[in-house]
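Box 3.1 A note on notation
Throughout this textbook, protein chains are presented in two layers. The first layer is the amino acid sequence; the second is a token string describing backbone geometry. Keep the layers aligned when reading.
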Amino acid sequence: MTAALVMVFVNKAVLNNSPDLPLLFLLNQLVIAVILLHISALISKRVELPKFSIENAAKLVPVVLVNVIARGLVLPLTILVSSVHTKSAPPLTTLIAAASVTFGFFIGVAPSQSLPAAATPSFLSLIYGVLSSLFIALHAVLIKSSLPHCNNSTIQLAWWTNFGSAVFLLPAVLLHGEFALFHGMINDPAWNGTVFLWGSAITGFFGFLLCIAGLLSIKVTSPITHMFSSAARSVLQTLLGVWIFNDVLTVPRGTSIMVILAGTMYYTWIKSQPPPSQGRRPEDIERAPGSVALGTPGETKDLREKI
């Protein structure tokens, strides 16, 4: 939670300071994450990095590409992608909780008379938001299905996603001319490069922690549960944005917060209920094919293994 909040607010500060270097900023974060993974492997033998293999690299290309490309629609799209991937329908209670959270997000982006026209999301920004949500949903589901290619290790998958993303992103940084632009900005006395450099270091470190935490969350729970927790975290981010950056909290945004919290609390209550004891356990859309159900000896053994 802390890592995610730091990432959001430091990202905002850096991009406000250097709006012309978004790809270079992201590349810095990916490179720092890979370096930290190697440092961790040197410090602890429990951190096992993968051996580079063309065969494994080819299998992990989808999750890496989606990670490079990748919030209201992210939850229903995750459920949709999970349903298609597992070929099973989600429970009605999960759909109700997801509908509540999604409705809350739409309330938050609805036009408000108390906001200036420039602060109202445009149609193009909403289209980008839908595409972003789709790729985030695909990314979460691909993480679950890609773990077997990395010996079920979140550390190895973190290395592949960060290293692969940096490789795919580097040509885009070159084509966009951000290296030359960065060199020119260094010589500009009006530009405060300290914010960019320190921001890259801080977000690289906390992005590394967030990457491990996110992969482990999806591994231990599911893509859908991970997205519900992200929705709850977004509420805290909104409140901190109002406090730190003086963001405007309108009545629709306040209502949105209450509806999202209601949906996430309902989903938490659903997951806390004991499963039906009679008959065969229904197939859980949140488990990857071939995985072990929660509470069985197999899962207990799996959780004791190295991440």
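The chain is about 70% helix and 0% strand. The mean pLDDT is 78.
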